[in-house]
Amino acid sequence: RQAARGAGIVTEFAHVPVMVDEVIAALEPSAGGVYADVTVGGGGHSSAILERSAPDGRLIGTDRDPAALRAAQIALAEFGDRLTLRKARIRDLREVLDELGVEQVDGVVADLGVSSAQLDQVERGFSLAKDGPIDMRMDPTEGETALELIGRVDADELADIIYQYGEERRSRRIARTLKRAYEDGDLETTGDLRRAVHRATGPKRGRIDPSTRTFQALRIAVNEELADLETFLRALPAVLGVGAVVAVISFHSLEDRIVKHSFRESSLLEPLTKKPLVAGAEERDRNPRSRSAKLRAARRVEAAA
């Protein structure tokens, strides 16, 4: 990890963006354009868009994670007033544009899921490999933690969450085990959570840890990720100018399915990718996170007569 430094601020939010070349090829940023990066993160995609749209292209970057915004502010400082940053969820894009007096943009990028920087920060509770609090909030300043969610819902609802968002067929057994551990006071850290799932599923036998799907499900539920994605996608036709392109990078089948169906079912969006694009071999070797990335793009078209 590298620390971004500036004006006395140290922000440990070093995130390697995925499929930057593919995003730029889809959006084709140009001078004078206005673009939106709704998951600005460490600023990787935003930097590439601003470089390609020089000298006067503008970018509006949003993120729900305050640490990401601090890092982006430092990393993208060279672009001056061509950059506007706002704290917002992806579902809030329309409201952000309205606030800024922008009716439509020339391109949008969304890099979904948890970032490598968030995984690296133990206190965020995203990582299976590091023992931290059972938090998992992308915005640590609001909402309930994953532990609070486990405590609030009953075993049946918890099982539904794990099955729906984690596609975990052992969800009933896992949910009962997690509720028992919570009630016994045995759930304090992500290590406790992982061990509780292992008690329900048996220990790790292959390459994938058996608690991976449960961690994913809890994270998605806590952050309302799929609901936010659906709201964001519904708003796109009104946000994009005719000819503008949206590029969405997803990291699991639930996200990709929602994006695919949204693009196909909209009369105002023309899919540019019959199948999702994936990272090239060199990028997959260099950045393991890119191995599960899938990029879909669509262009805003005129309404049918």
H/I helix tally: 13
Termini gap: 53 Å
- SSE order in H/E notation? EEHEHEHEHEHHHHHHHEHEHE
> Could you give a short account of the major beta sheet?
7 strands, mixed
Apparent shape: globular
Mean pLDDT: 92
Helix/strand-derived category reads alpha/beta
Helicity range? 40-55%
Global Rg: 20 Å
Query: Within the largest sheet, what's the order of strands?
Result: 5-4-3-6-7-9-8
Kindly estimate the percentage of residues that lie in beta strands according to DSSP: 15-25%
User: Which consecutive residue ranges, at least 5 long each, have pLDDT under 50?
Assistant: 1-11
Quaternary structure type? single chain
Query: How many strand units?
Result: 9
Give your account of this protein's structure.
This protein has 305 residues and is α/β, with parallel strands linked by helices. The chain has 13 helices and 9 strands. The protein has a 7-stranded mixed sheet with strand order 5-4-3-6-7-9-8, with helices on both faces. A two-stranded antiparallel sheet has the order 1-2. The N and C termini lie far apart (53 Å). The N terminus is likely disordered.
